Predict the structure of MOB kinase activator 1B.
Amino acid sequence: FSVCTRPVMAKLCRSSKTFKPKKNIPEGSHQYELLKHAEATLGSGNLRTAVMLPEGEDLNEWVAVNTVDFFNQINMLYGTITDFCTEESCPVMSAGPKYEYHWADGTNIKELDDETLFPSLIGVPFPKNFMSVAKTILKRLFRVYAHIYHQHFDPVIQLQEEAHLNTSFKHFIFFVQEFNLIDRRELAPLQELIEKLTSKDR
Ligand SMILES: *[C@@H]1O[C@H](CO)[C@@H](O)[C@H](O)[C@H]1NC(C)=O
């Protein structure tokens, strides 16, 4: 069973075909080192500084590593509540009464293979459209967070996943804010939560 068979995840999975849940960044690669660096700085306190581009690193690579990481986190979190989110219980993907996401949003993502979208070899250039593909993936990740917070919060609490969800989402928000990766209007369904989660660390 893969969470990607669920309608809520389908588009996200399609656009991020290149990094399926189980597919990790290979140990020993530069991206693996970057991921370890990210984890280490996260553990050491301030999220605002933890998300910043490490000195001398490439922005595309930093965004790639973190996007893969957020994707894996969302897969895990969504995986815990997936029984509550079926085609019957979630006929549309909503985030509260005011927001609904449609299966077609006018953005067509070309399917790229692993090596071109997420080059793992140093010196292999990222494709020119990498940042715009990454932004679309991050936007879709946000929509899954929004859907979970609005429609599946009860099981999240019952499963004692709330702190985990908060931590993951807070890291995600600091990251997209740092590099301006998601349009402000897109963040509206969770605006209040975002203000609460980020105000203490301003
Ligand atoms: C999650 O974040 C919200 C908003 O800041 C807060 O009200 C709630 O208590 C947090 N839950 C946990 C378990 O930390």
Q: What stands out?
A: The chain has nine helices and two strands.
